[in-house]
Amino acid sequence: MINIRKESDRQPFRPQSQRLMDQVREVLRYHHYALKTEKAYVGWIKQFILFNETRHPKDMGKEEVERFLSHLAINRNVAVATQNQAFNAILFLYKQVLGAPIDEQIDSIRARKPRKLPTVLSKNEVSALLDVMKGSNQLMAKLMYGCGLRLSETVRLRVQDVDFENNYINVHDGKGGNNRVTVFPKTLHGPMKRQLESTRATFDVDLDAGNANVYLPDALARKYPNAPRSWAWQYVFPARNLSTDPRSDAVRRHHAHETNIQKAVARARVKADITKRASPHTLRHSFATHLLEGGTNIRVLQKLLGHKDVSTTEIYTHVLQENLGAVTSPLDLL
């Protein structure tokens, strides 16, 4: 059975735009969905309409939705999570945009593409990868491995999220909109302080030029009107150049782009002669696996990673089973 995301039960917002896709964007922004989610939902809704020969969604229903979702499973061979996201996008369209929720049970063919085990680097491979990286990219990579941060969480770190005194990092609005606290390695205190000094210099220039205007979610921006110009709310890893916000058209300094660290890790992997298909997220997988190898309780690891369900964290126990080189036979301990 397809997992259905529970949409907001707030009073439905009625968009003012005339074109359907503009209405979708308008409602998504009203409900404060992330820009990535907005792009994904818009993409799936467009695919749904094109698959059904550009018919308007108000002229379609249960049968067309089931046919599209089954197409994704049979012809596109998508993963379960991908099929779920497509259905959530369509569900949002009907309930929140068109005001006509699909109340009938959707009985499409389920995606059965098996979930792959995550790629994990050995400790030696992690060390080799990090050693050939430099500057802020190296620090971001070390944060992902040392703290278990996702790439998006790393680039979105704010100055006030880093707690040197208590050795932890606050993660706000992580995946699923959740907040959590994770470890902050003492070995990163020095590099982080140097990064903040560099960031402060950039911030002071922006402040003097009247360009200090960091992004804040709408609710926070209204509650704290001066926060966008305060040091505490600035991104730890700011972009090199000012940019225009695609939603509000405001000119501000955003955080570093994710592709920069993705390319840096790819180059480092080649330079370190690592044959595994390592990406920034591989460092988070390695963080989890190495903690389990070291005896960390899986419930503790679940909290550090920000998983809602421990079953998500348990995938790393399967990685341990596959990584037989990390297992010591009891006979060798006699």
What does it look like?
The chain is mostly helical. It folds into 2 domains: 1-114, Tyrosine recombinase, N-terminal domain (DNA polymerase, domain 1), CATH 1.10.150.130; 123-320, hpI Integrase, Chain A, CATH 1.10.443.10. The chain is built from 14 helices and 5 strands. It has helices spanning 20-30, 35-51, 62-74, 80-97, 123-131, 135-147, 151-155, 189-209, 218-223, 258-271, 280-293, 298-305, 310-313, 315-322; strands spanning 162-163, 168-171, 180-183, 243-244, 251-252. It has a 3-stranded antiparallel sheet with strand order 1-2-3. It has a two-stranded antiparallel ribbon with strand order 4-5. A hairpin with an 8-residue loop joins β2 and β3. It is globular and about 60 Å long. It starts with 19 loop residues before the first helix and ends in a 12-residue tail after the last helix. 27% of the residues are buried.
